[in-house]
Amino acid sequence: MPFSIAGNISRFENHSIKKFEKYFGIILSEKQFAKQQAQLIQTSLKNSSGAIKILNGFSKPELISLIFLLTQFGDVILAEAPPDYVHFGNIPFAIEWTAGHCMVPLEILEFLSFEKIFRDQNYLFSLIPMLSLKEKKAWIKWMEVDVEAETEKELNHEIHHHCRLLQSPFQGKSFIHEEDFYLEQVWPQGKNEFVDWFYKGITPFYYAMQELSRIEKDPFKIHVLEIIKAGKFILKKEPEKFRSKDKYKLVGTVEGNTPQLRKILYGWEEEKKNSRNNLFWSNT
């Protein structure tokens, strides 16, 4: 899974760091504090020409390769990927952190997540940050993940990572073929106590889904709950209309509709850690 450059320079192939430094006009060193590295990277991204302009400069094979990488939750093993989807050599957003393993570092993933184009196309990595903090905390709790994220961006990353693990068995498939559907189509208002708590603003959506998952017996609705939990579909509020009740859709995510190719799990992905590991985010 992706991790940050800042605080982890020694984990990257030297030629990959040099490519990143050259493109963004910075110099990174292991002698720098992680906070210094993070500030350099953030400043360079802020002062860049912008993600869309950079993307527009890619060739078609490069753009397809980056999109493929994003659909794979930001990291791939080159040997497992189709040859037409691994043109990463000149892409500054893609880094071969060790031989044969390419990823989008967390700093870049966060940078891209703010772009409207990714939100509008329903990329999970871009929609997770749009949820309220209460929703994120309820979601990670439903996943039964014991994490003490010190910042909200850490929580975004943890949800993104665990969605990948939960989605893997689905291989991009689902009984639901619609791109999106209204929440009321499955759980109409006034028909279910737990979902009504959400409609009334009493509890977060993901808390209501967790409570519902404990008692639901209908096979189809159980499947709907499973794909919501895994982030194959994510809650999205409809634009507000004058004198209209709030309406919510569940939209299919790009990652959720794409088979996950990576078969190998890295050691840190399997370990249950009791303390925070700076492999994921630098201490900034």
Overview in brief:
This protein is mostly helical and 284 residues long. Helices cover 42% and strands 8% of the residues.
Write the layout of secondary structure elements.
Blueprint: H1 14-24, H2 34-46, H3 51-56, H4 60-71, E1 75-77, E2 95-98, E3 101-103, H5 106-113, H6 116-120, H7 124-127, H8 133-142, H9 152-167, E4 180-182, H10 183-186, H11 193-199, H12 205-213, H13 219-229, E5 233-237, E6 248-252, H14 267-270
Antiparallel strand pairs: 1-3, 2-3, 4-6, 5-6
Helix pairs in contact: 8-9, 8-12, 11-12, 12-13
Give keywords.
284 residues, mainly alpha, three-stranded antiparallel beta sheet, 6 strands, elongated, disordered C terminus
Largest sheet: 3 strands, antiparallel
Strand order of the largest sheet: 1-3-2
State the end-to-end distance: 20 Å
Q: What does the overall shape look like?
A: elongated
Pick out the low-confidence regions. 272-284
Structural class: mainly alpha
Per DSSP, what share of the residues sits in E-state strands of 2 or more residues? 5-15%
SSE order, one letter for each helix or strand: HHHHEEEHHHHHEHHHHEEH
Overview of this protein structure:
This protein is mostly helical. The chain folds into two domains: 1-114, no CATH class; 121-275, no CATH class. Helix content is 42%, strand content 8%. The chain is built from 14 helices and six strands. The strands form two sheets. A three-stranded antiparallel sheet has the order 1-3-2. It has a three-stranded antiparallel sheet with strand order 4-6-5. Strand 2 and strand 3 form a beta hairpin. Helix 8 (133-142) runs parallel beside helix 12, helix 11 (193-199) runs antiparallel to helix 12 (205-213) and helix 12 (205-213) packs across helix 13. The longest helix is centred in the middle third of the chain and has 16 residues, at 152-167.
